[in-house]
Amino acid sequence: MQKSVFRRFGEAFSVMKTKTGLFLIGMYFAAVGIMIMPMRSPLLWLTLVLMIPVGLVMSALFTGLSGIFLRTVRGEKADIMNLFDAFADVNTLKRVVGGSVFMVLILMLWSYIPCLLIIYAVAIATNILIMVTGMSKALMIARTVITVVCALTAIVLLFIKIVEFSFTPYILISRPEVRATEAVKESKRLTKGHRRKIFAAVFLPIACWHLIYIACWHLIYIACWYLIYIACWYLMLFVAIGVPSPLLRLVAVAVCSVVALAVIQVFYQLVTAGFYNDVYQASLQGQDNI
After folding, report:
1. What is the DSSP string of 173-187?
2. Number of H helices, E strands in the chain
3. Torsion angle in degrees (nearest 10) through CA of 44, 47, 53, 54
4. How far apart (Å, rounded) are the C-alpha atoms in residues 197 and 13?
5. Is the terminal CB of the chain with fewer CB neighbours within 10 Å at N or C?
6. Which residues contact 129 (CB under 8 A, 6 or more apart)?
7. Which residues in 85-122 are b (16+ Cβ under 10 Å) and which e?
8. What is the rounded CA–CA span in Å between residue 37 and residue 54?
9. How far apart, in whole angstroms, are the C-alpha atoms of residue 118 and residue 258?
């Protein structure tokens, strides 16, 4: 029997409201914290070369986090050490990192690079035409239109490929028999016929959440200000910190935003992991029951 998008949301929510949900949110913050720590090194900002190995480590860590979500939906036990499953041995690390890099390269080749080349070519051509003909206004309008079209095309192509490759981290971390470059192809094979469902259940809601957040940012800011004000009133903290300052309100908004982002990301990672698990199990049985 096929599962509806709302049923998948219900399954993810049933995990989120338990201790396992708190554990997963904690793992999300642990992974993000480990990723951010190297960025605090002043030396890293002085040399671009050091950012390459840091990025590779981040990709391996993210894949380990995906493995934790997959273990959770399968009912298996997971702990913080599973974040480092990709570092189990050299071959596993090379395979996970290689697969992640290969996926990013394909994403760039399909979206960013072609559109950027077109935009730069149009910019050079219009500048030459302006110098030769002097028709600046019409050419500038044409260049703007082409740039916007290319940007929208890049976004569409990027979303298509992200949906196709959405199972890649789970394949890399859970199926050692699949080669690094084959993991992307396997993800494309498994998502075929289910991409609309994956987009509707995962990527479209995330985009809506971010749009809602941007639209309601001022309301969130005001709400946080009143929450701090009420908390200070009941806890009698006015004597210690005075009236809540704009900086304090800004910090509160930032904290609330980070927590909300973590909850949303964990929720939809559970949905994606559930999709992968169901599709993979169905493929083993030669069925389509997701």
Report:
1. HH-TTS-HHHHHHHH
2. 14, 0
3. 20
4. 18
5. N
6. 135, 139
7. bbeeeeebbebbbbbbebbeeebeebbeeebeebbeeb
8. 10
9. 36
Is 128 within 8 Å of 82 (Cβ atoms)?
A: no
- Tell me the DSSP string of 223-244: HHHHHHHHHHHHHT-HHHH-SP
Residue 43's nearest CA partner among 31, 30, 53 is 53
Which residues make Cβ contacts (< 8 Å) with residue 8, sequence separation at least 6?
Answer: 201, 271, 274, 275
> What tens-digit pLDDT sequence spans the chain (290 residues)?
467 767 777 878 788 777 777 777 777 777 766 655 555 555 555 555 566 777 788 888 888 889 999 999 888 888 888 888 888 888 888 999 999 889 888 888 877 777 777 777 777 777 777 777 766 677 677 777 777 777 777 777 778 888 899 999 999 999 999 998 899 999 999 998 888 888 888 777 777 776 776 666 666 666 666 666 666 666 655 545 554 556 666 666 666 667 777 788 888 888 889 889 988 988 888 765 55
Length of the chain as a residue count: 290
Extract long-range pairs of 253-261: CB within 8 Å, 24+ residues apart.
253/220, 253/221, 253/224, 256/220, 256/224, 257/213, 257/220, 260/213
Determine contact, residues 276/170, Cβ cutoff 8 Å: yes
Phi (first) and psi of residue 47, to 5 degrees: -130, 125
Q: What's the confidence (pLDDT) of residue 1? A: 46
Q: Of the candidates 91, 112, 86, 285, which has an alpha carbon nearest to the alpha carbon of residue 169?
A: 86
Q: Which residues of 240-257 are buried (b: 16+ CB within 10 A; e: fewer)?
A: eeeebeeebbeebbeeee
